[in-house]
Amino acid sequence: MDIQKTMQDIGTRAKAASAELAFASGAAKADALQKAADAVWARRSEIIDANARDMEYGRDKGLSDAMMDRLMLDEDRISGIVQALRAVADQDDPVGAVLDEWDRPSGLHIKRVRTPLGVIGVIYESRPNVTADAGALCLKAGNAVILRGGSESFHSSQVIHSCLCDGLRAAGLPVDAVQLVPTRDRAAVGEMLTMVGIIDVIVPRGGKGLVGRVQAEARVPVFAHLEGICHIYVDKAADVEKTRKVILNAKTRRTGICGSAECLLIDRAFFATHGAPFIQDLLAAGVEVRGDTDLQSIAGVVPAKADDFGKEFLDMIIAAKLVDGIGDAIDHLREFSSQHTDCIMTEDDATAAEFFAKVDSAIVMHNASTQFADGGEFGMGGEIGIATGKLHARGPVGAAQLTSFKYLVSGDGTVRS
Whole-angstrom Cα distance, residue 139 to residue 384? Predict the structure, then answer.
């Protein structure tokens, strides 16, 4: 395969499709997504068979249990894909929405309205459901999308992509609106990163190596999604039982997702009064707890190394340390947080408000599991990723975040003096 020629062809077709999608009706886009959901469910056996090939590839490649979990599809997870497609379909069409409008003394009437970005490139690893999520959200926002899935999910993504194309055909929309790069060759990624004039923004979704490469090599804008080094700070006023429930869920529900908790910060005053029963819960669940000197007094806790703080484990491992109150916790976050999702457990509203004000992460939580760091759980239907940068989009990137805006200015023969 001539990678450069293939990617140029994909890009040219995506650009043409984006021009048509920019004025497609909300009803047509919703219909395409509903038909795609129908196709995914009707073809679920085909998807599961394709996924079995991917799982075999992953085992041969030596993927961790957490990464294999990210890769695996069964009927329940396919049902989740279907529900996510329908949820995006049912959302209001963001394109054309009036964000603001006003009149000027000059006689001009000005409106700021949402418009599609154009062509979006999505580069992702392992999780085949991203094929559906990214395709759906880009389509909803009137964008064409070029999907480059991980080599591990190659076969699953092909069938899911085919279902999206089924939906586009049924709705009379251009099939080139959602394209999947047809090769595992990493050279295709390099081509995408330099397709200036074709791709308007790149969204990387994966590990530090992938995101680092994209940020270093991209010549088109990037929605940054760095590591999910999620912290939970246990304040002295935390409720013990709430905290035990939240921490166990935040770490163990799914360890391989970016919303999994990776570090516990425990107020020394809380520890002196209550100990750390949630650490025993984690140990009993099979989590390796790497603690500082103080926490090593708990049977089963192993010594933490310096680089365990600020590390995304994506596994049944968590770092833990004692801190001297909220100020010390915030200082730790400023040094080690990836600004993805950080949580405070406390019954003191003033302390929670201070944490909300001073922690500069894309998502800041109070008394809730970090596993809720997900566009679907935010009511967005799905997400294309969690942006940790500060320009254009931040936090879960849903359909609305995949738009720009333009100004519509109306006059009546109005001239400037």
Answer: 12
Give the whole-angstrom CA distance, residue 254 versus residue 268. 28
pLDDT tens digits along 350-398: 999 999 999 999 999 999 999 999 888 988 777 787 888 877 788 888 8
pLDDT at 29 over 90: yes
Pair of tokens at residue 273:
């009064």
What mean pLDDT do residues 116-138 have?
93
Number of residues in the chain: 417
Distance of CA 286 to the CA centre of its chain: 27
Residue 211 CA neighbour count, 13 Å, CB half: 18
Query: What's this model's pTM, rounded to 2 decimal places?
Result: 0.81
Query: d(Cα 138, Cα 122) in Å, to the nearest integer?
Result: 10
Sorted by sequence, the CB contacts under 8 Å of residue 322 that are 6+ apart come out as 266, 267, 268, 271, 292, 294, 295
* 7-45: b (≥16 Cβ within 10 Å) or e: beebbebbbebbeebeebebeebbbbbbbbbbbbbebbe
| Rounded-to-integer distance, Cα 149 and Cα 309, Å | 30
111 vs 97, 98, 117, 351, CA distance in Å? 10, 7, 18, 41
Domains parsed from the chain with CATH numbers: 3-223+397-410 (3.40.605.10), 230-372 (3.40.309.10)
